[in-house]
Amino acid sequence: MMKQIIGGMYACLILVCLLVLQAGASAVGVYYVSPDGDDADSGLTENQSVRSLMRARELAAAYQTEHPQSDVRVYFKGGRYEFETPVVFGPENSGKPNTTIYYEAFPGQVPVFSSAKRLEGLKFTPSKEVDGAYETTVPDGLFFEQLFVDGQGYRMARFPNYDASIRILNGTDPHCIDPKRVAGWKNPRGGYLHALHGRRWGGTHYRFTGKEEGNSLRMEGGWQDNRRTGPHKTYRYVENIFEELDTAYEWFLDRDKSVLYVYPPEGVDLSSAVISVTPIERESILRFEGSREQSVKNLCIKGITFSATARTFMKTKEPLLRSDWAIYRNGAVYFKGSEDCQVHRCHFTQLGGNAIFIDGYNQRIDVRSCLIENIGASAVCAVGDTKAVYNGLYKPYGPGVSAKDMIWKRGAKTEDYPRSIQISDNLIFDIGRIEKQSAGVHLSVAYGVSVQHNSIYNVPRAGINISEGAFGGHDIAYNDVFDTVMETNDHGAFNSWGRDRYWWSRGIDLSKRHETVLLDCMKPTTIRNNRWKCEHGWDIDLDDGSSHYIITNNVCLSGGIKLREGFHRIARNNICVGKRGLDFHAWYRNSYDVVSQNIVFAKHHVRKNAMKHWGALIDYNFFAPTAAKDPRFVHIDKHSVTGEPLFLDPKNLDFRIQPDSLAYAVGFQNFDMNGFGVVSSHLRAMAKRPEFDGFPEPEEKEVEPVAFEGMLLRDIENLSDLSATGMGEKKGAWLLEKTSKLDPRWSKLEDFDVIVSLNAQPVNKVKDLIAIAGKLQRGKPIEAEIFRKQKQLKIRLD
Q1: Do the Cβ atoms of 755 and 732 come closer than 8 Å?
Q2: Least confidently predicted of 127-131, 252-256, 368-372, 741-745
Q3: Taking 60 as the threshold, does the pLDDT of residue 356 lie above it?
Q4: Is 662 within 8 Å of 621 (Cβ atoms)?
Q5: Exposure of 89 by Cβ count < 10 A (0-12 exposed, 13-18 middle, 19+ buried)?
Q6: How many CB atoms lie within 10 A of CB 242?
Q7: Residue 610's pLDDT is what?
Q8: 5 has a pLDDT exceeding 50
Q9: Residue 60: exposed, middle, or buried by beta-carbon count in 10 A (0-12, 13-18, 19+)?
């Protein structure tokens, strides 16, 4: 009897344990979603999968209401999910405190969240108007600018035709909108002019609204850059013009007739192909929308592929304070008013605009281990509200803040900005396919963003860009950034500006400006332990007032480090082995800058008044024989050393120095050469590394000025000259200094003016100015065209 009782007790105990385990298993909160599922099902098993993210979102919220201490995992089976409108996560969809709701790929499968719409029942017939093309009708009112055939993106009909081997815009023609060509276009309305910025500081876009008599075009646009100059005269092309449909992989939509024309390559049968398009309104897929008071919390998106959002370049209008950027606050994944949310191991591809946009107030957003490639604009943007900044101004070179208007409060005016954001271990390449003022990571009006272990390459402008000093505290570390500034000019693999409230301020004692700069930039930004390579600009470009930076332990493979107007910068223990070394542009008096213990292979480059103001310390640097100390600069580098650095293995990108290197004498210290770029195994297997072809000859050699009629003049020779003057091309006579022997006829010119014409005769070199001036009649007025403070002006010289 006792054995039966004991046996019964054991049975009860086992039953209780099973019930507990079963209850625990149900507390895990697992749901399944499949493209073949049914929202009427429970979602509790693979065979009962629901179909939509919206239904899964409801199930997850309901589960956490009953189990507020449990995580929830929503698994998406492989396949394609079409999003006609973005799915919005509000505060009510948040995970509970100390929990997370995961929306993730089923292990080993690839769910694709796509904005593309499949077009069914199309009947293609050979076009009677374009040999080689086919045409079909599409639903009335359907408007799209992205088309995919069997998943491959095709291009709008364009001139000149797309050529992948051409670096800038994949083909340009300066005559693409000449009246002679426009005469052949029956109706250009809806076509586009795409061009680089007039000085190649980004890109600009215009939409054609019609044409006039004489075949000139009516157009709107040009607002995509905060420093508008109109389109570049050479680097431009047109698209979405029917008469330019003439080669494979092109298409055109006649919106008036609802007829689609497609020019396939040989071997592609359109009648059996899958045709997808992205309707113009489908710009975003997932949106996290809360506020500081009621934020979206504790959500994780993992392992999802995001594809085929609409192009947004004509909506890129909002200027970002005094930076060169305009912005459109949107992305395939968009955050506003969110906390403790994550995007992990996702893939972003074939997007028309930004991949991820973190807008305004957000905290602890984590973007990690993602692959972002082949997209129209930027990869990750963290951008606050410009109204969060005291004395915020928008014109980059407009009037500064006067002493009476200066607000002396430190920090932010509101809480509407991202902080404590993590952007790490992401592989980013082939971005900015449409919008050239773009970046792998772009920060503006943000604080304490960590950008670490990212590999970023093949981008038209900067790999990492910071718009202004508000509010600093960023950590840029262990990134591998190369093949940058591939289509534009006067920029860097890392680029920043610092045109904050102190910049160009009026009536403020210059000796106090170093204090004023710290009002916006609350903590220094650190750029440490990165590898940079920019063959078309600087590796690290601290431009226009960038302040409060610590730059240490960086390998610069090509463009070196540029320090323009700014304060409180430390550049220490960096290696510059490329054609440019350390560039000093237009320094302020008492800048408190320190440049020390660096290894450089090119002479210092000094522009404008930097030779007069040397900061706190420029000394104890190590020069390779190609960069021996410049005898003109007697006040700096008194203790610097010249010699062979004796790197361990430069061919394999190991620039640690050997034990007997003289570089130790200036205090240089070795640092790790293996930690750059992505760390996830699946990304490391795909990521490229920069190439190093040996130590080049320094690219930019100093040119001696020419004395003429009391002026010291020199030609615009190189990238440093272009950056210092703000010129877009190498032309003009640069007036470095007026002397006591100045001829009165030049008295209205100012130091650092660039003279580009006299009496409508072009001045491309100093010799042109001398030749033209020699033929001018004394006493007659001279009409001069000059470039002053980054503006082109016409002045009358009497």
Answers
A1: yes
A2: 741-745
A3: yes
A4: no
A5: buried
A6: 18
A7: 53
A8: no
A9: buried
Higher per-residue confidence, 51 vs 696: 51
Other Cβ atoms closer than 10 A to 445: 26
Q: Higher pLDDT residue, 160 or 27?
A: 160
Residue 389 per-residue DSSP state:
B
Residue 6 has pLDDT above 80, yes or no: no
- Check residue 168 and give its pLDDT: 98
Sequence-ordered list of residues with C-beta below 8 angstroms from that of 663, at least 6 positions apart, any chain: 599, 622, 641, 643, 645, 646, 657
Residue 434: both structure tokens together: 């449409």
Element containing residue 481 per DSSP (H, E): strand 480-482
**CA–CA distance, 586 with 423 (Å, rounded to integer):** 33
Contacts of 289 (CB under 8 A, 6+ apart): 88, 89, 90, 296, 334, 336, 337
DSSP 8-state secondary structure symbol assigned to residue 66: H
Neighbouring residues of 165: CB distance < 8 A, sequence distance ≥ 6 = none
Cα dihedral: 468, 471, 477, 480 (round 10):
-30
Secondary structure letter of residue 567 according to DSSP:
S
* Residue 616, both tokens: 């706190």
**Closest to 295 measured CA to CA, from 103, 447, 98, 90:** 90
Which residue type does 91 have?
P
pLDDT of 666-698, one tens digit each?
999 999 999 999 999 999 999 999 999 888 877
- Per the listing, tokens 């993210």 go with 53
**pLDDT top residue among 398 and 96:** 96
What's the rounded Cα separation, in Å, for the pair 361 and 382? 10
CB 219 within 8 A of CB 193: yes
Q: Residue 413's Cα: distance from chain center in Å? A: 26
Q: Which residues partner with 74 through β-bridges?
A: 31, 103
CB 513, CB 591: distance < 8 Å: no
777: amino acid identity, one letter: Q
Rounded distance between C-alpha atoms, residue 245 and residue 157, angstroms? 5
**Count of C-beta atoms within a 10 Å radius of residue 254:** 15
Average pLDDT of span 488-507: 93
Nearest residue to 627 via CA among 591, 601, 659, 663? 601
CA angle 91, 97, 103 (to 5 degrees): 65
The amino acid at residue 671 is F
Q: Residue 666 in contact with residue 622, Cβ under 8 Å?
A: yes
Rounded distance between C-alpha atoms, residue 576 and residue 662, angstroms:
16
pTM: 0.93
What pairing do the DSSP bridges indicate for beta strands 305-307 and 111-114? Answer: parallel
Q: Is 643 exposed, middle or buried (0-12, 13-18, 19+ CB in 10 A)?
A: middle
Report residue 450 as tokens. 């960590």
Angle at the Cα of 419 from the Cα atoms of 418 and 424, rounded to 5 degrees: 100
Tokens of 484: 């940058």
Token couple for 735: 């007036």
356 phi, psi to nearest 5 deg: -130, 130
Encoded tokens for 201: 């500081």
The rounded distance, in Å, linking the Cα atoms of 725 and 201 is 14
Phi, psi dihedral angles at 684 (to 5 degrees): -60, -35
Pairing of strands 791-797, 782-788: antiparallel
What pLDDT shows up at residue 21? 34
Q: Give the Cα separation of 307 and 87 in Å (integer).
A: 15
Q: Is 321 left (phi over 0), alpha (psi -120 to 50) or beta?
A: left
Instruction: List the one residue out of 600, 697, 579, 701 whose CA is nearest residue 643.
Output: 600
Backbone angles phi, psi at 565, to 5 degrees: -40, 130
Q: Which residue in this structure is represented by tokens 């002019």?
A: 193
Q: Contact, 738 vs 731, CB < 8 A?
A: no
Read off the pLDDT band of 9 (50, 70, 90).
very low
Cα separations in angstroms, 741 against 87, 244, 608, 710, 734: 72, 59, 21, 4, 18
